[in-house]
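Q: Convert this sequence to structure tokens.
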Amino acid sequence: MALSNSQYQEIMREYQAQQLRNKHAQDDRVEEVYQKIPAVKELDQEVSTRALMRGRELLNGDKAALDRLRGEIADLQEQKAFLLALKGYAADYMEMQYRCVDCRDTGYTKEGKKCHCFLRRQIRLLYAQSNMERVLEKENFTAFNEHYFDDTAVEPAIGMTVSQYMRQVRQQCMEFVEEFDQKGGNLLFTGTTGRGKTFLTNCIAKELIDRCHSVIYLSAHDLFEVFSKYRFEAQTEEEMRDMHHFILECDLLIIDDLGTELNNSFTSSQLFFCINQRLLNQKSTIISTNLSLNQLRDEYTDRVVSRMMSNYTVIPLYGEDIRLKL
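A:
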């Protein structure tokens, strides 16, 4: 999911445009205050005058000029805050306001690393320019059709028809979305091929992406490929490092078809690391798998399944292969 140069430039142009909007908005607020409280403009002009005077004194060898300037500015700012408060303005009303305070709408933190908001834009851009966006246009809650599920025979494991059960599952998934900001949470969809696991994860993904949450959707194979490259390639590309970081930090990680990858001790350890780290970070994860819980335990060890059972809502799916009815 690396960015091309043109994609990177597109994101940076968005930041530049946001910076211009921030500056114009600040100019408007400053002009508004100057019109309503002329004394504030005089105080700002006095700050500039004092800075110029003390600067000259400092150049002439007056080492105490800087301390005097600090005291004078503090006094002038206090007067300014008082005048603003009298008219109902916040003390920082005339300051620059940012959409993202962590990077000040530059895309990069003070440490020179991509900000979380940059990574979020990166994921959304890659979704928009990939086949995934077209998939989500078709696979969403609006397209959910209960008529694909049998409503005649009672499924012994759940004591109701599959159609009735899937209506409950749909409602459960919608509640997961509605309560996401407050509760987060993790889901594990189990069931054999064609039961609707991927469809339901796509429904959730679309809703959260539309609500500006950062969502990464990866097959199990692709997930472990990222971990492998990050771990074993000496010269890890920046985008791969970003991807590894964001897998652990995005709002929602979806791991599709767990169990279809080539499993070994590395994948088992990395799955535990990923699950555990995201739990520690209080980030949500959805996993879909064709394996039963017992099969998961055999494939990925007890401690992986123990983490899932303790922290995930398990949603088993039943019925016939839906794809045969499409």
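Strands lie at 154-155, 160-161, 187-190, 215-219, 252-258, 284-289, 313-316.
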